[in-house]
Amino acid sequence: MTIVIAGAGLSGLTLAAHLTRRPPRCEVLIVDDGGKDITAAGWGSWSDRPGLLDTAARHHWDRVHVHALGRSRLLDLGAYRYRYVRGADLAATVTPMLESAPGFRRVRGHVDDIVEAGVEAGVGTGGAARVVVDGEPTEARWVFDSVLGPSDPPPADAVLVFRGWHLETEAEVFDPRVPTLFDFRTPRSVGASFVYVLPFGGRHALVEHTTFAAPAVACVAADSDTQRAALAEYLDTVLRVGRYRVEREEAAALPLSAQPVRRRRGHVLAIGTAAGLLKPSTGYAYERIQRDSVAIADSLAEHGHPFAVAEPSRRHRLLDGALLDVITARPSELERAFARLFDRSSAEPVLRFLDERTSVREEAALFTALPAVEYARAAAGRWRRNR
Ligand SMILES: Cc1cc2nc3c(=O)[nH]c(=O)nc-3n(C[C@H](O)[C@H](O)[C@H](O)COP(=O)(O)OP(=O)(O)OC[C@H]3O[C@@H](n4cnc5c(N)ncnc54)[C@H](O)[C@@H]3O)c2cc1C
């Protein structure tokens, strides 16, 4: 019986690679309609542990700059490294793994529908779920869905709006040894805005203007002219890069939700952003997708089903939600919060917190720097609403 992975983007390819480690005794079909060009994608992330796809990372850094409240800091990352994986490199790493694994097949096709057993009469006779690709049904034992997602996704608490330029400068202006995780020296718009800089070489970088916005004002924050003007102003007046050429632009508006996603529908499991793996307080998903894929592959091999994966931590969701509530109500608070959280020589404790690996005691130590009453009020409000 077949396993279908719907979507061959970040989560589909990562899961497929992990399944080759402990191959299921059935065909694995990976379906993508080519709607998104993976070679144009790229993901930054931090990690403190080895992973199956580490060789896909082209750039690594062990220090970062932060600029907030008029202060610039250089922080080491402790046990962590920050890295950047280009979509083309991810695809080039995973493709040979799939080609040498018996039973793995990639096909071009549009997923029209995914129907779990019990929803439609007849499904469950040949398989436990049915995937309709270009009008043709395929019966599947398990379906991993990164394309349609649950029919009832939680409402967005905020939207992460960003526009980035992959650029080439005439002069050598970037220090390729140190990226800038956030720099608040950019006009505040309707949301909390900062710029993020990944230097790939002395003359090449990704410079991204990023805003955490309340859902009601996300379309204002996403105004492309305003974002481009902010990028140009940052390059001219803050980095003073001189002449440059934009090689490629990327932009998105990602809904952020601290509510859990109902990932499982019968024999269908949502993966990737459809599974709520975008961390609400950061907008990062890369490393969470790596860990989720390890857990799914291990669960299938050890239990014969893919569901022995960690549930999102309730405490961290509450804290993420409280942060989003505070910064969407008062955008200036993001800069203040980040300035205080990163007012240390190493970013490691904050990254451990964002990885949801801190204890309550460690979190209390981190949060002493924040206006406790405001966050406590936001967290209490969320807790009451979620009960
Ligand atoms: C521009 C951008 C930059 C980002 N940068 C970062 C970052 O630096 N770090 C980070 O951690 N996260 C980042 N993210 C967030 C997140 O990691 C990415 O969105 C990531 O690609 C999500 O993986 P996914 O598998 O869920 O979706 P995708 O990677 O988008 O994969 C979905 C795939 O499904 C295919 N598809 C869609 N619909 C259908 C259909 N009906 N039938 C068949 N195929 C279909 C698409 O062609 C695509 O290949 C970024 C997101 C965006 C949009």
Automatic annotation (TrEMBL):
Pfam families: Lycopene_cycl (PF05834). It is an enzyme of class 5 (isomerase). Its EC number is 5.5.1.19. One of its GO terms (molecular function) is isomerase activity. Keywords: Isomerase. This is Lycopene beta-cyclase.
